[in-house]
Amino acid sequence: MECTFIGSYPSVDKMPQNDLPEFVFIGRSNVGKSSLINMLVGQKNLAHTSSMPGKTQMINLFQVDNQYRIVDLPGYGYARLSKKHRNSLMTMIRSYLREREALFLVFQLLDVRVKPQKLDMDMLYWLGDQGIPVSLLYTKADKLKSRKSNKAERNMKNPSCNPGM
After folding, report:
1. Measuring CA to CA, which residue among 35, 20, 120 is closest to residue 72?
2. Radius of gyration over alpha carbons of the chain, in Å?
3. Between 20 and 30 A from 125 (CA), which of 16, 24, 91, 107?
4. Which tens digit of pLDDT belongs to each residue from 79-111?
5. Angle at 141 between CA 115 and CA 42, to 5 degrees
């Protein structure tokens, strides 16, 4: 598998057009989007990872085997950013999701160790309202201690669908 970094873009209108389907990874900051992308393509340092949340601040685009593209979007909800900056990132994310014709499927990542948060459910409902296809992926299972696996199983089987939680 050959995967190459195409570029980082501050908005959807700056991105190159293409005919390849785009698979998009979204989730809260530090949920493991970049780590998952690296694992899927078999390259340790293709998508930049950091233990510090909120590092991804642009739309990162990768191409795989000239067959499809992977999009790494900024995380939503990072508290150490100003409200204005968080809102501008959310505007960029939603603009990509609404406007990008090449979008094929969104993978929304959730940390298996914690119950889905209000921001996660709000995003899931918004995607549904927009008619955007989405699959939920749970991450961080490798970080579970065995006594926490029952809680993780409950989080996956019965995520709260109440956006006011």
Report:
1. 35
2. 16
3. 16
4. 666 777 778 888 999 999 999 999 999 999 999
5. 130
